[in-house]
Each structure stands twice: as C-alpha cells, then as structure tokens.
Write a structure and sequence with these properties.
The chain contains ten helices and seven strands. It is an alpha/beta fold. A seven-stranded mixed β-sheet has the order 1-2-3-4-5-6-7. Bound molecules: adenosine monophosphate, zinc ion and fe (iii) ion (2 copies).
C-alpha cells in the first residue's frame, strides 16, 4: 500500500513533512508522495527524512486549475527531486494570488460583521495559507461550531466569503509541470462533477494536451467510479495513481494511506509513476 497524495504544514496539513514521513513508516506504507498546495517548500525535509528512514518517496505539488463548470480541477505534479527551479516563478505567482485572495476573503468576513484579521491567520499557519486555516480560526473564535460549518456557511465555492483562486489554464499548468520534467496527473476527478461520458471526453482532451496520469484511487471515489477510471486510463494510455489527501487534523476522518478506511493504493501505482519519471528525466 502506498499514498501519493498528502499535505503537510507547508500548506494546509497539520503534520510537518518530517512527521508525515515518520507516520508513513509507522503505518507500514511502502511509498509516499508529498503534494502540498502551490508550494514545494516541504519537499526537501520530507525527501531527506524519507532517505533516513528508508521510505520510497516522490516529490509533488498540487495546483488549482481554471475550470468552467460546477466542480473544481486540481492538478498534481510529480518529480524525482525536491529542487524544482523551473516551476518556482509560477508557484510564486500562485502564492501572491493566494495572499490577495486571503485578504479578500478576510474582508468579506469582516463585511459580514465577523472580527477577523490577516495577522491572526498568519499566526496559526506555518506555510501557505488556505481556507482550512480560516475555517480553524472561525472555530477558535466561536463564529461557527465546526470546521465543516465554516465551509458550508462561508468558505465553500459560492458561499459568502468564497473567492476563487485558480490562475492557470489546464494547458498552462500541464506544460509547466512537463517543462520541469514532472508528471502531470489529474487529482480526484470526481470533483470535476462531470458525467462518465463527459469525463471520458475531457480526459481524452487533457491527454492530447499532455496529461500523463489520473488519480483513480481516492477515498471519495466509489468502486464503480474507480473501475471506470482504471478502464479509461488503460484506453487513453494514462498512468494510474492514488492517495488519501491526508491533511492531519484538518481532515480528521482521513487516515494516511487508508482514507476513510476504504482506500488501498497498490504499490504498482508508485512503481509505474517512478518508472515514468525516470524515463523522462
Ligand atoms: P484552498 O487551497 O484555500 O482553496 O483550500 C482547499 C482545501 O480546503 C482543500 O484541500 C481541503 O483541504 C479544504 N476544503 C475544501 N472544501 C472543503 C469542504 N467543503 N469541507 C472541508 N474542507 C474543504
Ligand atoms: Zn488542502
Ligand atoms: Fe485537491
Ligand atoms: Fe490535496
């Protein structure tokens, strides 16, 4: 069993990169990848710790991509090494956009009569600030009872304080990752909210513009959907990956490697991804 989709304190997870690797080892995982939102900041620490404890490890990043439609598009990029100079300027642009967006979300909350400041937010976050940090702060301040309520009332797409953040088109994001000799993979395809037929067509189009893989194993994919993705990947010659999207205490029901206890990502996913990376590097 492996886990190729996880978050650390470099973005909105609550385990440091080092703690994450140690947990993976303790849980008996055969391989891990770290895929923080819009940052590679945590990769070096994870990479070095993985070496120390002898855990097969891949470097990754997760980027939000522009998508017209009800759902949302996240692109994973996988790499062999933690230093990825080719994508740093793009990530910096995304991080600046995130700062502006956080400021706007804070303003919207303030306009709704909630006393909240960016400084308070910066105090509780160690890396890239995202909506989970705002949700935690709203709970801490007693504005809402739960993290989930914060998303429902204020932070989810279309809610009162929501501000979109995607800047890159799918083509731009895929090209960025390929230029850095990485493997671009569509994360959790269910969040696109497309029908099977439309998703097939869309994946085929993405393949034409350079997509190399699809995250078929994901805790919120039911068996039928996973099977559909496995078949589609085979037809379109895409590799298959999978992961839990572990965020530590920010998604307390999601366990590393196991997701909501229904997840089991085979070692072959790691091996195929690693082989592909070695081939293109
Ligand atoms: P951001 O990068 O700021 O857009 O935040 C994205 C993160 O927010 C996701 O990776 C999840 O961790 C979390 N998230 C998004 N929607 C929800 C939701 N409805 N409930 C709980 N967490 C969510
Ligand atoms: Zn997240
Ligand atoms: Fe995601
Ligand atoms: Fe994620």
């Amino acid at each position: 069993m492996v886990d190729l989709h996880t978050h650390s304190t470099a973005s909105d997870g609550t385990f440091t990169p080092k703690e994450l690797i140690i947990l993976a080892k303790k849980e008996g995982l055969q391989a891990l990848a770290l895929t923080d939102h819009d940052t590679t900041q945590g990769l070096k620490e994870a990479y070095l710790t993985a070496k120390e404890v002898d855990l097969p490890f891949l470097c990754g990043v997760e980027i939000s991509v522009k998508f017209e439609g009800p759902g949302h598009f996240h692109l994973l990029g996988y790499f062999l090494k933690p230093d990825i100079p080719e994508i740093q300027s793009t990530l910096e642009v995304l991080q600046k956009a995130r700062d502006t967006r956080n400021q706007k979300m804070i303003e919207k909350l303030q306009q709704a009569g909630i006393e909240i400041t960016l400084e308070e937010l910066e105090e509780i976050a160690q890396g890239e600030i995202g909506r989970p940090h705002i949700a935690n702060l709203l709970v801490k301040k007693g504005v809402v009872k739960t993290f989930e309520e914060a998303f429902q009332k204020y932070l989810k797409k279309g809610a009162l304080a929501y501000v979109p953040k995607a800047l890159l088109s799918p083509e731009e994001a895929i090209n960025q990752i390929k230029q850095a000799k990485g493997v671009p993979v569509l994360a959790h395809p269910f969040t696109l909210k497309l029908s099977y037929a439309d998703l097939y067509k869309y994946l085929s189009l993405l393949k034409d513009i350079g997509l190399m893989g699809v995250e078929a194993y994901y805790t919120e994919h039911n068996q039928d959907f996973t099977r559909f993705l496995l078949e589609t990947a085979q037809k379109l010659d895409l590799i298959v990956t999978g992961g839990s999207d572990f965020h530590g205490a920010n998604k307390p029901d999601i366990k590393l490697g196991k997701g909501l206890n229904n997840l089991s990502v085979p070692l072959s996913c790691y091996k195929n991804l690693k082989n592909l990376l070695e081939k293109i590097n």
